Here is the input.
Amino acid sequence: MKPKRRYLLYPPFKDELTTSWIARNALNFGMKPSQLATLITENVEAWKPDLDVFINPMFAKSIATNIGIDQSVLYRLSFYGSCDYFYNQTEKTSQVKWVMPLGQKLKNKQFSLQYCPCCLAEDGKRPYFQKHWRLAFMTACPYHSVQLHDRCPKCHNPIELKRLQKNVEDVLYHPEDIAHCSKCGFDLRETDYVLASTDESDINRINFLQSTLGYGQVGNLKFAYSNLYFEGIRRLLSFLVCRPKGERLFMHLRHELDLRQMYHRELIGHNVEPERLEIGLRRSGLVMIYHLLQDWPESFVKACKATNTSTHMIKTPYLEFPYWVTDALFFQIKQYKYSACDDEKSNIVDFFDKRLKKKIKPEQVRRFVRYYFEEHSQRL
Ligand SMILES: [Zn+2]
Ligand SMILES: [Zn+2]
Here is the structure.
């Protein structure tokens, strides 16, 4: 029997996307990435699924045998095997929340994989794509404090590692092709960079640390389990940006924080989740959340009251909320509606008759009740 052929590949970087790792090695051989994916998995369909999220065990076994890598390394390379700190994988599906879908899967979608131009430029001759660039809670580079980009700045098409092209004049693929836009060839390392604001840098650094360490602190909140933090900010971001009922709160905070974010409700669509939002909306939403977390829940409660945002608008019965958000929703915002029976009503009228020493009509009672109980309690 002929011995199995082994391919010598550069190992993946610790924070590298699976597709970036395969593409980078393919380019190094002068090969098209889909071709190397077929060789190492022994399957022509291997390049089609989203390998960054999940590597089918059959592919993993072939890759492990063909290149001599431990299967556990491959498992941890995928988000499915390494998402514990930001998402509770229930093992029922291979889906991982917060991971942004790849461009070609969505209709009319002009953005997808993010990148930091400074990181790519600093990688020298071995540029690669980092895992956190696919996560929706990241909008700025935690190392360089510059804003990430979620599309090619020249032709505005999504960045697609799966469809890398070689330079037209070249016979073979070149290792640095990975740093070029697959549509127009623009060198992404030459993107003009924009410094992130202090708030944006702070929330990105917090998100990056929580997702890599598994714990962290924001404002006055400490999280021993970072997935509870991510669950909460996911609910807040969904309400603020994705749900029509959150529009008033979004506009209120936009004004308060003097953000210039364009906001067209009709363009966001229905049942959209945070990972399907373009970078500008996620950036503004995260900056708003960062502001609310500084003195949680005070500013949040104030903003909800100012915009008549009630608990039942935010809390939906079929979604689970972590304790720190539920506490704010139920103990700080919820206003109980009270009703009185006829006996109680006449007692109240009697009480005010005596107190004010004049006859009052039942319809005037509401005004007095509000005056004596709400205003009074605020003064105390
Ligand atoms: Zn960077
Ligand atoms: Zn382009």
User: Anything to note?
Assistant: Confidence is low (pLDDT under 50) at residues 375-380. The longest strand covers residues 216-218. The pocket of zinc ion (ligand 2) is lined by residues 152, 154-155, 157, 181, 183-184, 186 (CB under 6 Å).
